[in-house]
Design a protein that fits this description.
single chain; 4 helices
Length: 108
Amino acid sequence: MGERTYGRLWPIFAGERGEYELLAGRPGLAARRLAAMSRTANEGLLMSEQVWDNRPPAADGSPRPGTPTRSATPLAWTHAQYVRLALSLDAGTPVERPSVVARRYADR
């Protein structure tokens, strides 16, 4: 059997949750998601696919939670989500919301 691996936190999903918070009328929480995403950037301001959670691989507690793992960096999707959430906060609503999808779920 191989070594067990764990999936870690994905900054991109914080951005998606931020868009949900905007739709739910909670722009303050959406802004907190954007700030959380920005804290995951490395020293070159690049965001990765995943960041360390509170279960680091080393017993001494390093690396710190919220710092980039050795996953794909930069991850263009994460950067795009960051920009999209920032624009959405400025607009007060998600800027990318396909009408066909919105209509489908608004009727439920």
